[in-house]
Amino acid sequence: MKTIRRINELQELIDRNKRKNQTVGFVPTMGFLHAGHLSLVEQARKENDIVVMSIFVNPAQFGPGEDFEAYPRDEEHDAKLASEAGVDVLFMPNRDEMYPQNGGIQILPGAQAASLCGATRPGHFDGVLKVVLKLFNIVDPDHSYFGMKDAQQLAIIETFVRDFNLRTKIRRVPTIREEDGLAKSSRNVNLSKEERLVAPVIQKALKNGELLFHQGVPVKEIEREVANQITNNSSGLIDYVSLLAYPSLLPYTPKDKEAIIACAVKFEKTRLIDNIIMSTKG
Ligand code: AMP
User: Fold this and answer.
1) How many Å lie between the centroid of ligand 1 and the Cα of residue 217?
2) pLDDT value for 102
3) Confidence class of residue 49 from pLDDT cuts 50, 70 and 90?
4) pTM higher than 0.85, yes or no?
5) Mean pLDDT of all residues in 227-239
6) Residue 214 falls in the annotated catalytic set
7) Is 240:261 a contact under the CB 8 Å cutoff?
8) How far is CA 211 from CA 242, 273, 275, 278, in A?
9) Judging by DSSP bridges, how do beta strands 50-55 and 271-279 pair with one another?
10) I need a surface site. Which of 59, 130, 190, 193 has the fewest CB within 10 A?
């Protein structure tokens, strides 16, 4: 595995590989790797000649008072895991390399960013799209891999690629979980012991919501029920629990083929998100 910190150097390497007609699979991450990230690599490995992973904790997607500083980092361990998983090129730029100047140009997502994390983290998806566009232009990937754990991010990026004719194909990868059902996340290390013990209630409550959905219970009632189950069984504070159509993220109507039930829960030092995508009769 080759570790690269400079954009120019990565672009030269990609150009050399493209001249040999090699396909490029791309896995963008913020590091502190876990089995969720590695499952993206596994899928990328199967479908491409070379696999590029980026690790960059993107300041543009963190709001004031969010956990940019406290976001866990461990470059050395990440490099070991990435190499073992079959990453060919690990791109780890620093902040100045990615954002040497601020030209002030913004990318504004549309209606899909108005709900869920877009509503509670203003500007978050502007920052995500900014870094994703830069990375796509740098890596020029044939296929790019994103986890369903960040289902809103994935839906917005799919729209971005479609609306702006970006040349990469987006691949959806299912959420990888701990044995007790908690979605794997780099942020899980910032949970206290007690919080870690109760955090699996998030997925339990969402599963219960899914059951109620298939029983035809009204959306508002499901959202209330899921939120109550989480608050009654943990110290977590509900940021949101929402049931919407997927991937439009508009209010759910029985005509929609897929729905999402998603939540964000705030613990003392960290905020966790999770979701379940539910197919409907449409
Ligand atoms: P992050 O490093 O948290 O920005 O995540 C990088 C990529 O890994 C994103 O596409 C995430 O959706 C994906 N990802 C994070 N956690 C998981 C998980 N538990 N299962 C599958 N993919 C994940």
Assistant:
1) 31
2) 79
3) very high
4) yes
5) 98
6) no
7) no
8) 15, 19, 14, 10
9) unpaired
10) 193
Q: Residue 124 in contact with residue 63, Cβ under 8 Å? A: yes
- pLDDT at residue number 178: 98
- CB contact set of 166 (below 8 Å; sequence gap of 6+): 133, 136, 160
Q: Is the CB of 184 under 6 A from ligand 1?
A: yes
Catalytic residue among 34, 37, 124, 143: 37
d(CA 91, CA 30): 11
How far are the Cα atoms of 38, 155, 179 from residue 261, in angstroms, in the given order? 25, 14, 21
What is the C-alpha end-to-end distance of the chain, expressed in Å? 46
Mutate to test the pocket of ligand 1, among 26, 33, 37, 92 (most ligand atoms within 8 A of CB): 37
Q: Is the pLDDT of residue 68 over 80?
A: yes
Q: Which domains does the chain have, with CATH numbers?
A: 2-173 (3.40.50.620), 186-275 (3.30.1300.10)
Nearest CA to ligand 1 atom 14: 147
Residue type for 138, please?
I
d(C-alpha 136, C-alpha 52), whole Å: 11
Q: Under the phi-then-psi rule, with left for phi > 0, alpha for psi from -120 to 50, and beta for the rest, what region is 45?
A: alpha
The mean per-residue pLDDT over the stretch 82-91 comes to 98
Q: Is the CB of 134 under 6 A from ligand 1?
A: no
Report pLDDT for 107: 96
pLDDT band at 104 (very low <50, low <70, confident <90, very high): confident
Q: How far apart are CA 254 and CA 257, in angstroms?
A: 8
Site to substitute for ligand 1 among 55, 57, 74, 150, most atoms within 8 A of C-beta: 150
C-alpha 193/C-alpha 272 separation (Å) is: 15
Mean local confidence (pLDDT), 71-83: 98
